[in-house]
Amino acid sequence: MNYTFLTTAILVFLSSASLCYGAGVLPVDLLSGVKGESVTFTTTVKPTAQPFLALTWSFNGTTNIITSTSADVVGAGYENRITLDKSTGSLVLRNLTEKDSGEYELIIIPYGAGQIQGTAKLEVLTKVSKPTMACPTENVVEGITSLNLTCNSDSFTSRVWMKDGQPLVAGGRLSFHDGNRVLSISPVNRIDTGEFLCNVSNDISFDTARCRLLVYYGPDRPVIVQTPIGAELEEPVFLSCSADSLPKATFFWKFKHIMMYGPIHYIHELEPSHLGRYTCTARNPTTGQEASVFHNLRDSSTPISGSMSMMVCTVLTAVALTLV
Fold it and tell me: Could you read off the pLDDT of 3-27 as tens digits, one per residue?
């Protein structure tokens, strides 16, 4: 049997039929499908005991998807991709591609009744691709490093940058470039430590790329605490030095050309030779920075006018880091 001739004859017959009813036979006139998945064209036709005389689905007015009479004629490219419910005319189309976007028409000729016809449009969308974002692989140092975080993805309609769950806006040290693809931070600050998110989405999907950023900083100005505050000769005295730093700072003391190491200097029994100026220096091994402060140790019989301090920061490493 010449199925091509049969299909053409049926389409001509259906298109020339004078009776036409069934508005709303395809209740949804615009459907969305996902690339690689399935979509169902559902009709409002109620099943009948007697099969239809003829039924056809076509694409964009010219391509036969399936024509069903006493035999089924499936159009090229639709083999193993469709399932037809012959009692209602509903059609399932599988393995969607972007080329399946277009207009679909259903025509049914029942026994003893007029032609039923309906159309619907299908838009096949592609899910967003998993976004990628490269995190810095070198040390990120407060006030020195500038960096770019780049978020790449396909098939998205929206891209939103966030940090620790809060949206980011341009201003100050933050700026966006290349259609919001690149987030620039110049220079970085310790408050930038946290998780940066790049959220991409379209009408059917959503995905996220993450970068956990750790910003090294310090040391800040050290603080020396003397215990007890009122030092007396022949009594023990503690001098403790601390400074905010990431990673933790190392400490050393200088007193009369003597070097001592560690955050605490302990004097077992205070003697006149112990009195004078003690300098504590904090050093961050990662940032290469140092900060110093000095403290005058006196015995309790000498009025304490307060500690004098100074701060010296030496940047041993100054490398501007730009990641794209």
Answer: 444 444 444 444 444 333 344 799 9
Number of domains in the chain: 3
Q: Is 321 part of a structural domain of the chain?
A: no
* Both structure tokens of 251: 């400490």
Examine the domain organization and report whether 120 and 170 are in the same domain: no
Q: Per the structure block, which two tokens stand in for 10? A: 């049926």
pTM of the predicted protein model: 0.70
Q: CB-based contacts of 220: which residues, under 8 Å, 6+ apart?
A: 243, 244, 245, 291
Q: Is residue 318 part of a domain?
A: no
Residue type, 122: L
- Of 184, 216, 248, the residue at which a domain comes to its end is 216
pLDDT tens per residue across span 215-262: 999 999 999 999 999 889 999 999 999 999 999 999 999 999 999 999
Q: Supply the range of the domain harboring residue 119.
A: 3-125
DSSP string, 126-164: -PPPPPEEPPP-S-EETTT--EEEEEE-SS-SEEEEEET
